[in-house]
Design a protein that fits this description.
Number of strands: 12
Strand content: 5-15%
Oligomer: single chain
CATH topology of the largest domain: ABC transporter transmembrane region fold
Strand order of the largest sheet: 6-9-10-3-11-12
Bound molecules: adenosine-5'-triphosphate, magnesium ion
Structural class: alpha/beta
Number of domains: 2
């Protein structure tokens, strides 16, 4: 499991607005509702500004004239306005709730699909917790942003503008006193925005690191318990969460500063306006009602003004979350992996539709698998390091089983991963029946080549579903049923029939409810169930006893007569069942021959094989 940090970009120098505008394609389908909701909210918010005007009418009219009926009328009017405002805000909520849930779902689905399509090298590089946190916390932040800050920045901005117009219309001198703090506040907000963005990004990345630790601790629970590492694991977690807490505190301090400024300055301005207004009322230059209306309008604007601080903070967080989301989505996907892509969807392949082992018109020349001066180095290998594989020349004839032997770390797994294009060769070429795999659609290569890996991974699904994953088609047809039975027989996985619900038995996460050898045999059954033309097995029988291994090999031979196979092997018992053996050493294939020939002629091979019992 990779534990590296996500390759994060510097947050500096980007504009929050430009970043957030990338959300538009997702918001577009729900734009009508979102705009109507904002409109409703603006109307509701401005309704609040009518209260002071009614008050002014009451103070200068019925109250001054001691007209009880007029006061009642005013009170009823205020009640009506209050109800209208509440109803409008409720309506807004109803308008946005459902569409925004669908926006979040769409973004999450896109992220997941993209993660399936990026190359293996991407997953080698990214910590899984970073990806997980982007698909959960960050998307939640984005939905909250769309639901609340986005609308209310507009709504409160509009309310402030309308309120200011009312204030200036009532008494422009007092209005200007209230407007005085605007400039210093804008300057402070601009400064605060940059600082907050950087800290918000740091906090989100730290959540990703924390998620990684949790995930690794859960997956590696056996090792942690077995080696008594729970204390150090807990310490690592505590360390990270303390760092995160520190970052959150910095965020809180920044917010506190902004609140201090944003709440104090307007209060001071209102105080000044109150003093000036009272003096004017005493001089008779202003009616009491106007002063009451003026001050209550100013007070009604307090919430829209004060909210700007945290609305901007939330928008900053949304912008960094967007950035993190698109960092993943911008990673280049593999071309030609969409199984269901129509013709033309794939730019590389000549034939986009996988057509494995069909009795088609001109049969391809049966040439098997050919490695031609293949060179490979991992994308993130340090500069100047020698390639893992250097000038590999190897020909596996059609129908032949070739064993691949080499010291541990010699590059066997790497070599096998090149055939189904899990990694791309960095030099030379690999051909399947004469056709260069680099010029074939990946989907087609993978339909032709079947694999079983060193780590037999099973998914949380039934045994049958896990195996039939290798068949390419749907599940549940009678054809699949017979293919499943045959594959289980080949892999000597008859233990399946003894499971509580047979092939319908659910296996848990990673198949941990099964033994290592049982998992390996299911992975093998998955590799052979589709009767592939080419089979690449990375040490698939290591967990089996020698007798079961021999049975598997014999069954493999019988059923897959036309299949060309490359099998990584460590034990003489496995090697003996192959037609020929290739020895991988120092990044090259240094010898090819039968087991007996190599034993006689190659000292390194003899040494590698000397550890086991010879069949
Ligand atoms: N994703 C990766 N990124 C960078 N280097 C890698 C990666 N995977 C493997 N390597 C390096 O490539 C070399 C060959 O590894 P590989 O897994 O192919 O060996 P192997 O022959 O299969 O070994 P074993 O017999 O132990 O399975 C090792 O030195 C390893 O450190
Ligand atoms: Mg290996």
């Amino acid at each position: 499991m990779p534990t590296t940090h996500a390759p994060a970009k510097e947050p500096g120098g980007r504009s929050a607005v430009r970043t957030l505008s990338r959300l538009w394609p997702y918001v577009r389908p729900v734009r009508t509702r979102l705009f109507s909701a904002a409109l409703v909210a603006i109307v509701a918010s401005c309704t609040g500004l009518v209260f002071p005007l009614v008050l002014k009418w009451m103070v200068d009219g019925p109250v001054a004239d001691r007209d009880t009926g007029g006061v009642w009328l005013g009170a009823l009017l205020l009640l009506g306005l209050g109800i209208a405002e509440a109803l409008l805000f409720g309506f807004r909520r109803w308008l946005v709730a459902r569409p925004l849930a669908s926006v979040e779902a769409a973004m999450r689905a896109d992220l997941f699909r993209h993660l399936q399509r990026v190359p293996v090298a991407f997953h080698d590089r990214w910590a899984s917790g970073q990806l997980l946190s982007r698909g959960t916390t960050d998307l939640m932040l984005l939905r909250m942003f769309l639901a609340f800050p986005l609308t209310f920045l507009v709504v409160n901005g509009a309310t402030i503008a309308v309120g200011m117009a009312i204030l200036l219309a009532q008494d422009w001198a007092l209005g200007l006193v209230l407007l005085a703090p605007v400039l210093p506040m804008v300057a402070f907000l601009a400064y605060f925005e940059g600082r907050y963005a950087a800290v918000a990004r740091r906090a989100q990345d730290q959540v990703g690191d924390l998620t990684t630790v949790v995930e690794e601790s859960v997956l590696g629970i056996r090792i942690i318990k077995g080696f008594g590492r729970h204390r150090s694991q807990a310490r690592a977690f505590r360390e990270l969460s303390r760092t995160l807490r520190g970052t959150e505190l910095v965020k809180a301090r920044l917010l506190a500063a902004i609140y201090g400024v944003i709440m104090t300055l307007p209060e001071l301005a209102i105080g000044a306006a109150l003093v000036l207004g009272s003096v004017q009322v005493a001089d008779g230059g202003l009616s009491t009602g106007t002063l009451v209306a003026f001050l209550s309008t100013a007070l009604a604007l307090r919430w829209p003004v004060e909210s700007i601080g945290f609305l901007l903070a939330m928008s900053q967080e949304a912008a960094t979350a967007t950035e993190r989301y698109f960092e993943v989505l911008d990673a280049e996907p593999e071309s030609g992996t969409e199984q269901d892509a129509g013709p033309g969807a794939d730019a590389v392949g000549s034939a986009a539709v996988p057509a494995p082992r069909r009795a088609g018109a001109p049969p391809p020349p049966a040439d098997g698998i050919r490695f031609d001066a293949v060179e490979f180095r991992y994308p993130d290998a340090p500069d100047g390091s020698p390639p893992i594989l250097e000038r590999i020349d190897l020909h596996i004839r059609t129908g032949e089983t070739m064993a691949l032997v080499g010291a541990t770390g010699s590059g066997k797994t790497t070599l096998t991963a090149l055939v189904p294009r899990l990694h791309e060769v960095t030099g030379g070429r690999i051909t399947l029946d004469g056709e260069d795999i680099a010029s074939m659609a990946r989907a087609r290569v993978r339909a032709l080549v079947s694999m079983a890996f060193e780590e037999p991974t099973l998914f949380s699904a039934s045994v049958g579903e896990n195996v039939l994953m290798g068949a390419g088609g749907g599940t549940g047809t009678p054809h699949d049923e017979s293919a499943l039975v045959r594959a289980l027989a080949v892999a000597q996985a008859e233990f399946v029939h003894a499971l509580p619900q047979g092939a319908a038995t659910q296996v848990g996460e990673q198949g941990l409810s099964l033994s290592g050898g049982q998992r390996q045999r299911l992975a093998l059954a998955r590799a052979v169930v589709g009767r592939p033309r080419f089979l690449v097995l990375d040490d698939p029988l290591s967990a089996l006893d020698v007798h079961t291994e021999a049975l598997v090999e014999a069954a493999l031979r019988r059923v897959l007569k036309g299949t060309t196979a490359l099998v990584v092997a460590h034990r003489p018992s496995t090697v003996l069942l192959a037609d020929r053996v290739a020895l991988l050493s120092g990044g090259r294939v240094t010898a090819v021959g039968t087991h007996q020939e190599l034993l006689r002629e190659n000292a390194e091979y003899a040494w590698l094989m000397s550890g086991g019992t010879e069949g």
